[in-house]
Amino acid sequence: MSDIQEPDHRRLRTLAIGAAALLITVFSLIFVAVNSGPQFDAVIMDDHVVGGTTDRLTAFAIGSASGAIVVICAIRLRKH
Prior knowledge:
This protein has helices spanning 2-36, 53-79, and strands at residues 43-45, 48-50. The protein is mainly alpha-helical. The protein starts with a helix and ends with a helix. It has one domain. It is 78% helix and 8% strand. Strand 1 and strand 2 form a beta hairpin.
């Protein structure tokens, strides 16, 4: 009986990790897309321009890494 349940737990764990990574990827994509156009307003918090070049590069890096996790999870789910 335990042999049957264990792969289901692996699938659920993989699905949960993939879903969370997908949300992070989507939010990062939206952040980069919104802040890549012409900026008419600037939000400055503690002498830092929110949505500047550093923020866009950081969101791109985080989105790329979490997107890779989504792909790995999708491949693992497809194999089993």
